[in-house]
Specification:
Helix content: 25-40%
Number of helices: 18
Structural class: alpha+beta
Distance between the termini: 72 Å
Largest sheet: 5 strands, antiparallel
Number of strands: 20
Shape: flat
Radius of gyration: 35 Å
Length: 620
């Protein structure tokens, strides 16, 4: 008997040719932040990102004291700050005027000369600017590598917890300087160009309430004034930073609470300093009159006696006073010492980079050392070129009765012009001046002056390029070390100043970071903690102050390899030595060339045989 079947029994419950639709997960509800705008609107932020912002106690401590002081006190402070600024400015006028002539020795302006005759040579010997550009290139490569300029060291005994903390601090600060603070590298390179020429350069690090992050800024020498008797920034009674702010930027600063909303005059075009005017003349720039008005703010870090609860009577404490130069109205007064500091020491926001320390506060630069040599080389080079020009196109005298047919244009090569003579000998009628060929003695003197200047600035490159003619590596190393003494000392000063700069940044991170701050890097999400900047980890530059260049580092590695080849087998770790040499050569794919050794693992007999055939280590 046939049994009736259900026709739908052959259809599987879940078809195999249908892709199941995965339900889209519903995002969790995010908290929104609301911000009232001055015009009455509301800004709603759904990103819910963590920003760097000071906690309430820190905000209160560094609040604007100008809003709580009376008009009489503010007027006295304003007069004192402005008078001190003008005194510091006038005390170094002659020092600034020296650089006005030094900028002409850079040869950055292309112009035609009519002195001492039309078409005279006005070229400038590139000794000074060449030395400055070479220094900038070498220092930038050493002090700011591509992976970041910061490394860390543990203070005290090391353990696993502190090693992880040091690694977090290093990664985050390198992220800050390469990604979060995009202006840092550009400002750093500007500083490295000014430093070798002038001898002193300044960097400023501070927290920007508009950007909600730290900001690094290069301060030119004509915008930073220090008291006359100051020997360094820490001991200086005062120093003033001249700040230029457009009306739009100043309005943003007032809206964010950086400055008080006081009545200010209309912004005008500020009168440039003699220092800035000379640079504008060389570069061919002219400030506009009415299209780019600016406010000039004087931010002075000084000591004041202000009547407040934490201040003792008769004792001046460090403050930061900012006033507008035209109206002399004070925009803000903030404490410049920590609330928990019993000594109430001044907080430093500036770093002084010095090329060569001088007799006073400011350092010496290449304009001081090579300025006269550059002038001598320029004069010799112009004389040689002018002598060659006169020898090729000589002039002279002709008798009054002799007349050339046509004009007096110079005779081109292969050209003969007609001359009307009254019967006299033409050789006697035309007398050329006795111009000489360029002097060989002057040419040798130019080479001597140029070589002396280049040897003073940097003779390392010549020794490295001629290393094959010196013989053994040890001899080359001795010459290289002797030639790099000058730059090594400068490099150590840069290393120390950059270390101070990183410490200022670490202090800002401790004051303004939240308890946990997440950030993203390529292919990874990381976090930094406020407690990581508790002082147990020190931040230092990644550069080595004792080895100022890659060439020096590579020669040391080659010397070690030569010793390893001459020593008995097993005395040197050749793998570690090879890794050091490739690192000194900046090999990009080092981990692929020299992968880390794998520890042997006990395997089955067949796997041991396969590993042995591949040259991999095996274990019993």
């Amino acid at each position: 008997m046939a049994t009736e079947r259900n026709p739908f029994e052959q259809i599987p419950e879940q078809p195999t040719n249908v892709v199941p639709m995965t339900p889209v997960p519903v995002e969790e509800e995010q908290e929104a932040t609301f911000e009232l705008e001055p015009d009455g609107g509301v800004t709603v932020d759904f990103t819910n990102t963590v920003v760097m912002e000071a906690e309430a106690p820190v905000k209160e401590w560094y609040s604007n004291l100008a809003e709580t002081l009376d008009e009489g006190t503010l007027g006295e402070i304003s007069s004192t700050v402005y008078d001190n600024y003008m005194a510091d400015k006038s005390s170094r006028q002659e020092w600034e005027s020296m650089f006005e002539r030094g900028f002409d020795l850079l040869g950055l302006k292309i112009q035609e000369s009519s002195e001492p005759f039309e078409g005279a040579c006005n070229a400038v010997h590139p000794l000074l600017v060449e030395s400055a550009v070479k220094f900038q290139s070498k220092a930038s490569q050493e002090l700011f590598p591509s992976a970041g300029p910061v490394k860390t060291q543990i203070l005290g005994k090391s353990n696993a917890d502190r090693e992880r903390q040091a690694n977090r601090v290093k990664n985050f600060m390198n992220y800050q300087l390469t990604e979060q603070m995009p202006e840092y590298f550009d400002e750093f390179e500007r500083m490295l160009f000014h430093l070798p020429l002038i001898g002193s350069a300044f960097k400023k690090l501070y927290y920007d309430a508009n950007l909600k992050r730290p900001v690094a800024e290069f301060v030119p020498i004509d915008q930073f004034y220090v008291s006359y008797y100051a020997s360094n920034l820490r001991k200086a009674d005062r120093y003033t930073h001249v700040i230029y702010r457009s009306p739009i930027d100043l309005a943003k600063d007032i809206r964010s609470g950086i400055y008080s909303n006081t009545e200010l005059p209309r912004a005008t075009t500020p009168e440039p300093t003699a220092f800035a005017s000379k640079m504008d003349t060389i570069l061919g720039l002219t400030p506009t009159e009415d299209t780019d008005p600016q406010y000039v703010l004087l931010e002075q870090h000084c000591y004041l006696e202000i009547d407040e609860p934490n201040a003792e009577e008769g004792i001046a404490l460090p403050y930061i006073v900012t006033l507008e130069e035209q109206s002399k109205n004070i925009l803000c007064i903030r404490r410049n010492y920590k609330s928990d500091d019993p000594n109430q020491e001044k907080i430093t926001h500036f770093v002084h980079y010095r090329f060569v320390p001088g007799f006073g506060f400011y350092g010496f630069g290449l304009m001081h050392f090579l300025g006269n040599l550059t002038m001598s080389a320029t004069a010799a080079m112009r004389s040689l070129i002018d002598a060659g020009q006169f020898a090729n196109l000589p002039g002279g005298f002709k008798a009054k009765g002799v007349r050339m047919v046509g004009d007096n244009d110079p005779i081109s090569p292969g050209e003969f012009k007609e001359v009307e003579s009254t019967g006299m000998d033409l050789a006697k009628a035309i007398v050329p001046l006795p111009y000489k060929e360029p002097s060989s003695t002057l040419f040798q003197m130019l080479g001597f002056v140029t070589q002396a200047g280049q040897k003073f600035a940097d003779s390392t490159e010549q020794i490295v390029s001629e290393a094959s003619s010196y013989g053994p590596v040890g001899t080359t190393m001795a010459l290289l070390e002797a030639s790099s003494k000058f730059f090594s000392a400068i490099h150590k000063r840069l290393h120390k100043a950059q270390r101070d700069e990183f410490r200022i940044l670490a202090r800002i991170d401790y004051d303004y970071l939240p308890s946990e701050y997440p950030y993203d890097v390529p292919f990874e999400s990381r976090s930094i903690y406020k407690s990581d900047f508790d002082g147990r980890v020190d931040v230092i530059p990644v550069s080595d102050p004792n080895i100022p260049s890659n060439a020096h580092r590579l020669m040391i590695a080659q010397m070690a390899m030569q010793m390893a080849q001459q020593s008995p087998p097993g005395m040197f770790n050749l793998e570690a030595l090879s890794r050091t040499i490739l690192s000194a050569a900046n090999m990009p794919n080092l981990e692929e060339i020299l992968p880390p050794k794998q520890k042997p693992q006990p395997l089955d007999p067949v796997s041991d045989i396969m590993a042995a055939t591949k040259g991999m280590p095996i274990a019993a």
